[in-house]
Amino acid sequence: MRLPPEGARWLISLRWFACVTVVGAALFAWRVLGVLPNPIPICLVAVAMVGFNIWFWISQRDYGVGEANVDRFIFQQITHDLIALAVLVYFSDATRNPFLFFFVFHMIIGSMYLHGFMPYVVAAMASLLTGGVFLIEYLRGEPSFPIHLPTDPPGPHTLDGVYLLWMFIALVSTFWLTVYLTTAMHRYIDRAHAEMRQKEKMVGMGQLVAGIAHQISNPLDGMQNCLNRIGEGVREDPQLAEYVRMMADALERIERTAKRVQAFAQPRGIKLQRTEVNTAVEATLQVLGSVHGENIRIETKYGKVPAVQGDPYTLQEVLFNLCANALAAMPNGGTLTLRTVVVMRPSEGDPGTVAVEVSDTGKGIPEELQDKIFEPFFTTRGESGGTGLGLVLSRMMISEMGGRLQLESAPGQGTTFSVILKAATDEPETT
Questions:
Q1: How far apart are CA 254 and CA 227, in angstroms?
Q2: What is the tens place of the pLDDT at every residue in 393-429?
Q3: Which CATH superfamily is domain 273-422 in?
Q4: Which of 30, 77, 102, 423 could staple 351 via S-S, CB 3.0–4.6 A?
């Protein structure tokens, strides 16, 4: 989440108020309180601030051309404010001026509006400016422009080097901690905003596919009725009867898929049952028998795994989708490996977990794309008909069964998707 560039205009408007406040505070401290012997230097700084602010106000019409220009324009304003603030505190007993902590305000602004390492450049600039002012005062041995408080003893007051060092360390550590914490919070908000957008897309997609599934389910009923009538007329022909049976099975699978997609958009779960993962893998391989090419070798490594809590058909559908993606990742041939293994052994109060791993020897997935492949409609196979929904729906279905889908991949080293499900318990669960 990026803050709007209107912040540059907001800084300009705030600076008008700051200029008036500086002049008013200087005159009040001089005339009314009598603690500021000479207000002229501070008023001159305020006049310079007005001049620069007029320039910022005139230049703002051009700053919005490109993101880099926005950052540059805001950085220029922060730089001006830091220099002006350093000069102001120098002319008003810097070592005892409480307005030193106004530097923190610009650390927050820089961390909110600037990007990359620029907030730390602001912190370094503030550290150098305050350190320079303290060094000048220390070398003189006394404040150049002291403030005379009523409780001060008569005569000039000397500066203590240890006190200045402690003050400088406290200020600088405050600057850098403020930048670090603010940028960390900004990154956290960015991640939360990205997750929120992801959930919004998932909700919208769920409503979309639920509507499509509803439109599909209506003509399916008519097709099934017609197919049943056709089946009655071809009973004497075994070949045609077998074709009709295969078509009926296919329509039934489509209907079950349509109903499942509709269920994704509704606030109800599915009833889990004991599912043998090795059996689900075998059923998936039977479907893949006529899909993969001649240069593809399929290996299976079955472990002695317990049954899991899940739906057999859903698990087969997920495995089929993962296998199809693995085959697409090996256009020139390779090895597809399906392995079942116990991930976590059962313990008291925990039934343990079982994983089905689908591995390929393809080119792998770049690290920068590994988070994006689970986003709706994101696909690297758009030219070959990829929709970008397979992995999204697969993760949704595995999550609905109480499991999770994990990815391990590296460029040139292939990819492994792991479907991890809870081992079955004696009592069925509903999620």
A1: 14
A2: 788 888 888 889 998 988 888 899 999 998 887 644 4
A3: Histidine kinase-like ATPase, C-terminal domain (3.30.565.10)
A4: 423
